[in-house]
Amino acid sequence: RAKNGRGEHICYYQPGMDENARTRRQLATELRHAIERDEFHLVYQPQHAVQSGAVIGYEALLRWVHPKRGLVSPDEFIPIAEETGSIYAIGEWVLREAAREAAQWDPDLKIAVNLSPVQLQQADLVQTITDILVDAGLPPRRLELEITESAIIGDRTRALHLLRQIKALGVGIAMDDFGTGYSSLDTLQAFPFDKIKIDKSFVLKAVSNHQATAIVRAVLALGRSLEIPVLAEGVETEEQLAMLVREGCTEAQGYYYGRPRRLKPEQAPVVTEHG
Ligand code: C2E
Ligand code: MG
Ligand code: MG
Ligand code: MG
């Protein structure tokens, strides 16, 4: 405990407030300076066409190298950035950086960027995306934004309007982590998705677990009937890939193909076959 100028005790933490909460508060403060301190970078994970094995694009994934803690997982810091509002600046940094890099790549390659549900609340989001594409010289059709279904709970009319505006730019929209959370079939047919990403939890279990296989099969059938391409994430083994091929999956991503990695400018990706 510390004293302020008037001799009163200031409580920096409540007795009982756990380590966890203090860590989060500290990370929240440090996140506000992470951009200017150059602590973020992006790694890229390839997405493949299953039939040919060709790379069709890359997903940008954010990394924070904290000066003392080292690498902090986005699963830990993104929720904090969402709570404190830092996500607006961070999300814009990610988009700008990913667009700038992807503009150097083979023009057949897409770049997928995760968009936080909170970013959909940003009043000038559509204008921001437009400006970033123009500044980077990236054709809109090469950008795909990944959102989870939690982005469209709440004011669905507003969300639908916004996603339509984004689509009108020519930018694609993927539903990420499908099968977890609030997934409803109604959302898939009401919203203009260009891709469904089956959550990795099902793909990882699917070889050994019949329920998980049934879910993968059902999502693939759904994609076929709604005519929305389905990508399986979290493909780690040949067995998992074989199962996906058997079930008619056309696109996949995962450690089997490649881990997310940093790209140096001289390693700008070109379209290559896997294997
Ligand atoms: P996500 O968008 O669903 O990304 C997939 C996650 O699965 C990534 O974790 C990726 O590294 C991991 N992954 C890929 N292949 C495999 C595999 O074969 N096996 C396993 N076990 N995991 C695999 P990561 O990079 O830690 O990101 C976690 C989550 O953090 C992302 O899930 C996304 O929700 C969020 N995130 C990451 N970058 C950003 C960002 O720039 N903005 C926002 N808003 N969220 C981000
Ligand atoms: Mg994603
Ligand atoms: Mg995902
Ligand atoms: Mg996820």
UniProtKB/TrEMBL annotation:
Keywords, alphabetical: Membrane, Transmembrane, Transmembrane helix
Which residues of the whole protein are included? 636 to 910 of 910
Give the superkingdom in one word.
Bacteria
Keyword Ion transport on entry: no
Q: Name one GO cellular component term.
A: membrane
Annotated EAL domain ranges read 24-274
Name used for this protein in its record: Diguanylate cyclase/phosphodiesterase with PAS/PAC and MHYT sensor
Species name: Novosphingobium nitrogenifigens DSM 19370
